Amino acid sequence: MAPLDYYHGFILPHRYGLSAQALIDWLRDKAKALALLLLLGLCLIIAIYGLMEYLPTLWWLVSALTMILLSLFLTWITPTLLLPLFFKLKPLEEGELKERLLNLTKRAGVNVRNILTMNLSSKSTIANAMLCGWGKSRCIIFSDTLLREYSPDEIELTLAHELGHHLHHDITRLMAVQAITFLLAFYLAHLALKTGVVLFSFQGISDLAALPWLILVLAVFTLLAQPLRNWYNRRIELAADKSALELSNNPQAFISLMAKLTDQNLSEAEPSRWAKFLFYDHPPYDERVVLARDYPVIASKDELSEGAIK
To answer: Rounded to an integer, what distance in angstroms lies between the CA atom of residue 13 and that of residue 101?
Structure first.
């Protein structure tokens, strides 16, 4: 996997101008991520096999609940501990833009604790923004590439999209979907391990020799479930787009924002149905533009007053 990871994660982004990282910095980030994954993975394997040994009939349920709690914890520490391992985060600078964005949050009726910037330009040329965290750690993060290269209207629309996620409680909804996925995955793994004892003569479901079988079953389930999760995520993103249009009342800026993001991030504007079904967790450019073009612009109070005077 290492050669493929190097080609996909370093060679291709540099070939198409999407990466600004030197090889040594890329390797350093990969080492950090690998260390975290190995530590977490080792702890999970030890815990799961311990549960198999002492709770052979209910290990799958306790394991799924453990994964749900771990997922909640990782979401909570993402903006405070995980992201700072790879990027520098700082509060958005005071000024006209910040005041404009805070006014938008007030119009939306959303109490945003922090609007942060991330030095994405140190590693990449793409633009991005996200709503992340949980509870008191929840915040909205803009990449410096987006703040530097996009107009105030486009930045405001980006925030409006993230506020749409907040208004719809999308993090909670996605966590619920993830919880159901964990429960199904571990229950199917339980059934597969019981079957494996018969098929492959394992000494029991807690036999360490069955670990490759367990990993294979979970990997196949994840692969098959991903298109369904992508479909649900696209629905959530499209609903956030609608909220962004309602909050901003500026479909032209929305279309401009989508065009810039598609060009800058080298996204495919009109993917095939199969590509969208299998790989896309966000609506493609063409669907988002159609949504904006069909949006009925609501005249402001000042425009309505002027029209009445005329």
So the answer is: 32
Question: If phi over 0 gives left and psi between -120 and 50 gives alpha, with beta otherwise, what is residue 201?
Answer: left
CA angle, corner 66, sides to 234 and 235, nearest 5? 10
Contact by Cβ (8 Å): 129, 89: no
The radius of gyration of the chain from alpha carbons, rounded to an integer in Å, stands at 23
Distance CA 293, CA 258 (A): 12
Residue that has been written with the tokens 């504007």 in this structure: 269
Q: Are 6 and 34 in contact (CB under 8 A)?
A: no
- What token pair was written down for 200? 């492959």
Q: Both tokens of residue 216?
A: 């294979």
Q: What is the pLDDT of residues 109-167, one digit of tens each?
A: 888 778 999 999 999 999 999 988 887 888 899 999 999 999 999 999 999 999 999 89
What sign for the dihedral angle of Cα 254, 261, 176, 83? Answer: negative
Query: E strand or H helix at 90, and its extent?
Result: strand 89-91
pLDDT at 160: 94
Nearest by Cα to 173 from 139, 221, 217, 131: 131
Sheet strand arrangement including 115-118 = 89-91, 115-118, 139-143, 129-132
